[in-house]
From TrEMBL:
Keyword Phosphoprotein tagged: yes
Record: residues binding ATP: 51, 471, 567, 595
GO MF: ATP binding; metal ion binding; polyphosphate kinase activity
The name this protein goes by in its record: Polyphosphate kinase
């Protein structure tokens, strides 16, 4: 009798938070990789810090809450909240050591060799010392506010993510030498990285300037110790929506409360005295294993700012490339005529996001356009799309915009834009009760000779013209009738009470995407059991939903070959006998942040290609409005397959998850190097140059099928593809 396998056995799952730390380690590896340009390595180190800060504010904060309320549940890997908190703190401490080893032993010495110096006060020339002295007196001194800490003046509130000095001092005429304490916040209105005279790329940190002259804020007192510290607080937004009549107001209230969340992480100088350390731990009510002693400057996000201020070293940055935009989708052509001819697939950032902006711009001024409907999850601080939506409303078009005011860390920005859109005459929906709307949809309704036609843009990424330059995403422009009807029904669901019994082409979360992928995997299992060829290929940011992983295990057990590209969290384990032997997992971390979601199923030659806004995480499948949509035009479907296969064959930035849970680079011996992101960038540059030279096709077909990367020269070694932008 065949033994039944429990595909939800905890030993088959990685812990979500530990897997996230593994991802951030891969980002840190990019900072350590000497094959990357030096200033890009510096930025990667800064990214590891910003990643870590956000993760602590939300995920570690959530674990701390579960421990506090004595939650007795366990995660898919079988860990209690207390065990998870212990394990992630232990692993995060090890990461901190690697971060500062990378800074002190690798990056700072390498920067110094090329004339970029981050100096300490004792390293300054006389001219530079006079400069920081003047800078302190003229700029900093009037702004700084020392805060005494004694019986009449309690320990001050310390803002989240702020840099502070903790001081131990005594009064000069006090014969007993009683120890006094004070704090001083480093003002965030000034650049933390201060450029010095006397060298093109000499810098100093603002806290070092303040420390040098801090005694001038405490006249007739002697400073015994000065130490820098920083806190990360619980910044998770808790909106109880069930009884909330005004969601926008509730979000605004929670934004104010969030600033006073519990301290989840305390960072201090490694040179801090035991006495001062104990005082901070006590006053901030910090758990001992949440205290991190740092061997270097706190808060490494400054490294990105440092890299951006360096002058004269373009050779230490990534080589620029020229993103491609088909002529038919630019501002000199009617974009609706182009979409009527055929669908258009865009791969950002290699294809310009300008085409998406142009779609909304032309809709805002086209006299035949009756209505524009759009979902916005994250937009830039100066969004052209917001401007064109407002213009459309002012031009008399019906404009409906769902602005997700609960988008984490973009709540304030989204509340602002929601108000602005209302002022410009747009009808604004502030998200849905109990759900986040994460779908990326635009609908333009246009009156034409043959009646009403619906034009649709669907994407895997946000309508953000800034992040579109460094997030990889896929988008589709179409006027397919069935898709247009589906998108219309989605907007009716979002704005009203419509509940259509089915969709023609799209699959919608909550639940719809889960049901569809479950069904596809069940079908794949049938094919495998009948010895028919079947292949499943997926790409996503994160894979953590236990039910979905169990379904993948079930398909693998049936003999289905499954290839997964998962950039970040992956709770699935590979190489488990009879469970995941047929599953391979790759992760790509490189120049651009891999953000696109692709789901492909090949049933004995019947290749089905889908794109989605959703990762395979419980929140995306159960608690968000998401869309999964097909790529129906055959040449575009082939292009998506080619894009996926090129990424799968990457042997430079790709790491493979082995059966021991370790991400390893592939052995490249005897193989031509393939960095998929650089390959796509070079291809875009070539297509743009061909277009500018009038050698490009005038047929309006956007995609020229690419040769297999292994069978053509490395584009960046080609003279035409290597020119700077």
């Amino acid at each position: 009798m065949t033994e039944t396998i429990d595909f939800k056995n905890p030993k088959y799952y990685n812990n979500r938070e530990l897997s996230w730390l593994d991802f951030n380690e891969r980002v840190l590896d990019e900072a350590r990789d000497k094959n990357n340009p030096l200033l890009e390595r510096v930025k990667f180190l800064g990214i590891t810090q910003s990643n870590l800060d956000e993760w602590v504010m939300v995920r570690v904060a959530s674990l701390a809450k579960l421990v506090e309320v004595k939650w007795d549940g366990r995660d898919s890997s079988g860990r209690s909240a207390e065990e998870q908190l212990r394990d992630v703190n232990a692993k995060a401490h090890k990461m901190l050591i690697r971060q500062y080893s990378t800074l002190n032993r690798s990056l700072l010495p390498a920067l110094s060799q090329v004339g970029v110096r981050l100096l300490k006060v004792e390293d300054l020339t006389a001219e530079q010392y006079q400069f920081i002295k003047g800078y302190f007196h003229d700029e900093l001194y009037p702004v700084l506010t020392p805060m005494a800490d004694d019986s009449s003046r309690p320990f001050p509130f310390i803002n989240n993510d702020s840099l502070n000095l903790s001081l131990r001092l005594h009064k000069n005429d006090d014969q007993d030498g009683k120890t006094l304490y004070a704090t001083l916040q480093v003002p965030s209105i000034f650049s933390r990285v201060v450029k010095l005279p006397g060298g093109d790329n000499d810098f100093i940190l603002i806290e070092d300037i303040i420390k040098e002259f801090v005694d001038q804020l405490f006249i007739n007192y002697t400073i015994k110790e000065v130490s820098v510290f920083r806190v990360i607080r619980d910044m998770d937004l808790d909106v109880a929506e069930e009884d909330t009549s005004d969601l926008l107001k509730k979000v605004q209230q929670q934004l104010k409360l969030r600033e006073h969340g519990h301290v989840i992480r305390l960072e201090v100088d490694s040179t801090i005295s035991n006495k001062l350390r104990k005082r901070l731990v006590k006053e901030l009510q910090t758990a001992e294993d949440s205290v991190y002693e740092v061997n270097g400057p706190l808060d490494l996000t400054f490294m990105s700012k440092l890299a951006s201020q360096v002058v004269g070293h373009d050779d230490l940055k990534y080589r620029p490339f020229k993103p491609y935009q088909p002529e038919e989708l630019n501002d000199e052509h009617n974009i609706f005529d182009a979409i009527q001819k055929h669908d258009w697939l865009m791969q950002h950032p290699y294809d310009k996001f300008d085409s998406v902006v142009e779609f909304i711009r032309q809709a805002s001024v086209d006299s035949e356009v009756l209505a524009i409907k759009m979902t916005l999850y994250r937009v830039s601080g100066d969004s052209p799309i917001i401007k064109y939506l407002g213009r459309a409303a002012q031009n008399g078009k019906q404009v409906t915009v769902l602005v997700e005011v609960k988008a984490r860390f973009d709540e304030k920005n989204n509340v602002h834009w929601a108000r602005q859109l209302e002022k410009m005459g747009c009808h604004v929906i502030y998200g849905l009760v109990g759900l986040k709307t994460h779908s990326k949809l635009s609908l333009v309704v246009r009156r034409e000779e043959n009646g009403i036609r619906r034009y649709v843009h669907m994407g895997t990424g946000n309508y953000n013209d800034v992040t579109a330059h460094f997030y990889t995403d896929l988008g589709l422009l179409t006027c397919n009738t069935d898709i247009g009807l589906d998108v219309t029904n989605i907007f009716n669901m979002l704005s009203g009470y419509s509940r259509p019994p089915y969709f023609h082409q799209l699959h919608i979360s909550p639940h719809g995407i889960r049901d569809f992928i479950d069904s596809q995997l069940s079908e794949a299992s049938k094919y495998a059991k009948e010895d028919k060829p079947v292949h499943v290929q997926m790409k996503m940011n994160s894979l953590s939903d236990q039910d979905m992983i169990a379904k993948l295990y079930e398909a693998s057990h049936a003999g289905v070959k499954i290839d997964l590209i998962v950039r970040g969290i992956c709770c699935l384990k590979t190489g488990i006998k009879d469970v995941s032997e047929n599953i391979s997992v790759h992760s790509i971390v490189g120049r651009f942040l891999e953000h696109s979601r692709i789901y492909m199923f090949n049933f004995d030659g019947d290749q089905q290609v889908y794109l989605s806004s959703a990762d395979l995480m419980t929140r995306n499948l159960n608690r968000r409005v998401e869309q999964l949509f097909p790529v129906l035009q055959p040449d575009l479907a082939r292009r998506v397959v080619d894009i996926y296969n090129t990424m799968w064959n990457d042997n430079v930035k790709m790491r493979m998850l082995d059966k021991d849970g370790v991400y390893k680079r592939v052995d490249r011996r005897g193989r031509e190097p393939l960095d998929c992101q650089e390959f796509f960038a070079a291809q875009a540059t070539k297509m743009t140059k061909n277009q500018q030279s009038d050698f490009g096709s005038k047929s309006g077909i956007q995609f020229q099928p690419m040769m297999s990367p292994q069978n053509q020269p490395d584009p960046f070694n080609d003279e035409d593809g290597s020119d700077n932008q």
